[in-house]
Amino acid sequence: MRTLSAAVLTALLLTPALAAGDVAEAPGASNDRFTMSPVEGGFLRLDKRTGAVSMCTHAANDWLCKPVEDRVLAAPSGEVARLQEENKALKDRVKALETTLETGKSPGSAENGTLDDGPPSGKARLPTDAEVDQALDYMEHIYKKLRDRIKDLDKPLPDPADSTAPKGAL
Predict the structure, then answer these.
(1) The pTM is what?
(2) Starting at the edge strand that comes first in sequence, how are the strands of the sheet with 34-39 ordered?
(3) Which residues contact 46 (CB under 8 A, 6 or more apart)?
(4) DSSP structural state of residue 158
(5) What DSSP state is assigned to residue 142?
(6) Averaged pLDDT of the chain
(7) Cα 94–113–95 angle (5° rounding)?
């Protein structure tokens, strides 16, 4: 069974090259149309012109070739429809986002009654120098508080036997 699977996979991988005409064929030569590969229970026959794969077996003094089903390419029709719908929705979303970037207006704004999860405006605004200074001053304030707390942790604790320490002090 593994040999059959390997032969079918090999035939499927070769099919695009064969269908594209990459294999040289003498016109009118029917001997070069098929490729036969031995597998368990018979032969796999590859039609070089169409890419069809058939399993050929010997039964009752006669050879019988049955087409091999391509399970990889045979996806459920519901799955294909779902993927096509999802693809269309994603393309529409990309187009809407491109429009937003180009025009600066969100396509799903209040003017058409829908809400969009895109950016509220087309371009981001950089902070002013005053806003940057304010943010840096705030970060400096936090750094100083943290540094003071760390210094407090490094101070030695008072000796409990020392009676000069005020009551309630650590």
Answers:
(1) 0.28
(2) 34-39, 42-47, 53-59, 62-67
(3) 11, 14, 15, 18, 34, 35, 36, 37, 52, 53
(4) P
(5) H
(6) 76
(7) 10
